[in-house]
Amino acid sequence: MLSLKGAWSAEMPLVQDQLHRIEEDAARDLAATADEAALEGWRVAYLGRRGRLTQVLRGLSALVEEERRNLGAAANQLKQRLEDAHEAHHSALGDAALRTTMREGRLDVTLPGVRGPIGRLHPITQTLRDILGAFASMGFQVTEGPEIEWDRYNFEMLRIPADHPARDLWDTLWMDYERDGVRPMLLRTHTSPNQIRVMESQEPPVRVVVPGKCYRYEATDATHEWMFHQVEGLAVDENISIGDLKGTLYEFTKRMFGSERRVRFRTDYFPFVEPGVEMAMDCFNCRGGGCRTCGNQGWIEILGAGMVHPEVLTGVGYDAERYTGFAFGMGVERIAMLRYGIEDIRHFFANDLRFLRQF
Ligand code: FA5
């Protein structure tokens, strides 16, 4: 700290000298600062609250007025020069840092890009789309219905009342919701409730296919999953016969698999059709000889079908004397198995990318 009181004429050259040295030292030190941290150290040393120039400025208050005015002006001009020098050095350091970043982190826009992994459609989605495409090209419309279904649609209106032994054909997952002591909602066990939904909402002629997930409370094996997909088909019009059903399904298999695959119809029982049939294709794995995939049958069942029962037609308000219809429900996973030669249905939803990447 300067002590100038009462010695004004002798102190004048001393302060001027101090200012002169501060300016010289500041210039030399500034030239040696190479980064922001060093620059901040410089600012604190000369311009900070305890810095060299600040101390001189504080000491000026002790001088007589004329000296204070002259030296004050000189000290403030020096302060301004140091602040300008600080600002200029700060931006010079910033420019240098930017140049370094541009030099070292330079982007070569001519390099080829890195291709990200591209997803693909699940084999079941691909198969489903092809099935729907084949039926659409035969004049069928595509519609959808709910996965959580009422007992009334899934069973009762399809002539499967409560306590009917036919309910055993579909082991059901019931929703945890009771009304009047019964559970009226379930995860649909098949897509057939959509027959009722479609007929309730439109008059004949009807030609629709309805894709969807189905759920059954059953043990899994090579051809059975607890969750799988079906496509329901329904055609109702005047003069529809079982010949139309067979013709439609033959045409479908030809479009999906070509004409060399063999199909087999056998009678089957479903309460909502009369007569009922099942259709199977020759097993891709053993070509009919019998293996684990087809349960030694030589055939893989792909769908159930039949002529819509007249009581189902009257149940939705259709005139069963005038209209007849056929319906079918096909298993999408079974068709995908036949198509791609997959020997176990459980591969589809095991989510093993090594399997899924093949499609
Ligand atoms: C039915 O579900 C009837 N709703 C089909 C039907 C519709 C008959 C219209 C008459 C008229 P079924 O339970 O057989 O039928 O199933 C039909 C097809 O779904 C089977 O042929 C099979 O391809 C497939 N499927 C059935 N259960 C499973 C399962 N657990 N896992 C995979 N696919 C299955």
Gross CATH architecture of the largest domain: 2-Layer Sandwich
Q: Supply the CATH superfamily name of the largest domain.
A: Bira Bifunctional Protein, Domain 2
Number of helices: 11
- Give the helix/strand class: alpha+beta
Bound molecules: adenosine-5'-[phenylalaninyl-phosphate]
- From the alpha-carbon coordinates, what is the Rg to the nearest angstrom? 44 Å
Number of domains: 2
- The CA-CA distance between the termini, in Å, is 85 Å
Strand content: 15-25%
Q: Indicate the CATH class of the largest domain.
A: Alpha Beta
How is the secondary structure organized here?
Elements: H1 8-32, H2 36-47, H3 52-59, H4 65-104, H5 123-136, E1 141-142, E2 148-150, H6 151-154, E3 185-187, H7 193-201, E4 206-215, E5 227-237, H8 242-257, E6 263-268, E7 273-282, E8 299-308, H9 310-315, E9 324-331, H10 332-340, H11 353-356
Parallel strand pairs: 1-4
Antiparallel strand pairs: 2-3, 4-5, 5-9, 6-7, 7-8, 8-9
Helix pairs in contact: 1-4, 2-4, 5-10
What this model shows, in words?
The protein is α+β, with helices and mostly antiparallel strands and 359 residues long. It has two domains: 92 residues; 234 residues, 2-Layer Sandwich (BirA Bifunctional Protein, domain 2). Helices cover 41% and strands 18% of the residues. The chain has eleven helices and nine strands. The strands form two sheets. It has a seven-stranded mixed sheet with strand order 1-4-5-9-8-7-6, with helices on both faces. A two-stranded antiparallel ribbon has the order 2-3. The longest helix is centred in the N-terminal third of the chain and has 40 residues. The chain is elongated, with a radius of gyration of 44 Å. It starts with 7 loop residues before the first helix and ends with a helix. The N terminus is likely disordered. The site of adenosine-5'-[phenylalaninyl-phosphate] has 25 residues, from strand 5, strand 7, strand 8, strand 9 and helix 10.
